Amino acid sequence: MIIIQDLILALFYMVAGLVDTALGKSRKRYETRVFIKAPRDTVWSTMTAKSIRFEGLVPVEVSVEPRSGEPPFLSGTIKVGDRERLIAFVEELDEPASAGVMRILPEHTDPAIIAGDDHLIAYSLSPGAEGTTVLLAHELTHTRFRNRVLVPLGARQNARRIKSHCEKLAGTEAASDGSRIRDAIATGALTYASFHYLFGGQSALVLLALIFIHEAGHALAMRSVGQPVRGIYFIPFFGGVAVAAAPHASEAERGFVALMGPGLSLLTTGAFLLLWQATGAPLFAELALVSAILNGLNLAPVLPLDGGQIVDAILSRADPEIVRIVNFTCLIGGLGASLYLEWHILTGMLLLTAPLLVFGGGKSRTIEPISSAGQAWLTAGYLASLAFYVSVATALLQ
Fold it and tell me: What pLDDT is recorded for position 355?
């Protein structure tokens, strides 16, 4: 459910950002509240720790210490996954176990993590009978569009990290496996209902099964390269997603995991095709056709589809600006095709991606680029899979 909430919020912040940009409004304040089943002292010590590590999909480590200056400030490093950046801030308010305000110092902070000008981060704690409510607020003047989305979503992610850390210390953390299963069942039920509304009961079941096979391919690929899997979740009106519990180690790994969603479905699509040829049953022809269309579309070279991820990984050795131009060109082509074919859900998803590509600038690689051999193998696998699905869909539609 968290994934769906974040997707909805990302769409909201993109639309709000576009409106604010049009109106020339650059100063913004974002607030996030989170209830933590832990005593206030535990939460306060976590919020004000000078050295701490937060576990999660991407581990975060913070290490700072006081520095002399006028006024005195704190500086050190913040490590997100494998990336380590310098950060510095001054504490403008420090009310023990109650509230705090800090101001980011851009002159001592790595430009890569500066979200905007005059960036203030405030937090306050409200104790209750069963835990502590934390209010986190970010206030800044935006200089880049993408941070209109990344700052509020990042604040939500940080709040979840703090909650998990504090509840683990307090021994009140909920069982993660049960939560994942509940989320998978809930998202599956909502997605089935959305497909039932659009296509009817039988088609909804077919789509849900094919999406599960596709996402299972991603999950199996993650496991095969030693990447832990957080779970498989469904997204109403759209499809599903396999979520890793750790970042990719390389662009080759990222491309392989993206390819293996449609890759595993090659086997089931081929099996449906053979069963149809052997029995003549229309059901198998329908399954083969839907699977071919579903996976073939997913291989379109448009971010954030699997095809876009694969092509982006293949181009990871190229200049970031060239990659940006390629991705933007593919996006325009994808939007044109989705509008012409009246695939409104795909159009909406691509419009959700567009502002990040338009305003995001060139992308700097933070993981190992793909090798020449890996580039050749990934390209061959991508083109072969795409050709297979196109040929199957073409044959069955004649």
Answer: 65
- For 349, other C-beta atoms within 10 Å of its C-beta total 22
**Which of helix, strand or coil describes residue 237?**
coil
How far apart CA 205 and CA 276 sit, in angstroms, is: 19
According to DSSP, the β-strands at 51-54 and 229-235 are unpaired
The Cα 289–Cα 210 span in angstroms is 11
**How many whole angstroms separate alpha carbon 47 and alpha carbon 223?**
34
Amino acid at 177: D
pLDDT digits (tens, 9 = 90+) for 19-31: 888 899 999 999 8
Q: What is the pLDDT, as a whole number, of residue 297?
A: 86
Q: Which of 8, 14, 82 is nearest to 366 (CA)?
A: 82
CB contact set of 195 (below 8 Å; sequence gap of 6+) = 203, 204, 207, 208, 237
- pLDDT tens for 339-393 read 876 766 667 767 766 666 655 544 556 678 888 888 899 999 999 999 999 999 8
Determine the Cα–Cα distance for residues 365 and 255; give it in Å rounded to an integer: 14
Extents of the domains making up the chain? 2-170, 175-246, 258-398
For the domain spanning 2-170, the CATH number is: 3.30.530.20
Nearest-angstrom CA–CA distance, 62 and 153? 19
- What Cα–Cα distance (Å) separates residue 26 from each residue in 18, 80, 103, 118, 326? 11, 27, 18, 11, 29
Answer yes or no: is pLDDT of 123 > 80: yes
